[in-house]
Amino acid sequence: METLPFDAADYLDDEEMIAAYLQDAERDGPDAVAQAMKVVARARARMAGRGPSAAARRSA
Q: Is pTM beyond 0.90 here?
């Protein structure tokens, strides 16, 4: 069985979830916020149809 790395961006599918994710990151400090911003960028790209979805990555 092949597994893929976990990517939180797969689960951030609306702005409310993104806001909650960023709030959690803020509690963990600036490094966590920087990482969260990268995840949010991937999530927003996927929501806009510009990035690979989880399903697309699984079928690759």
A: no
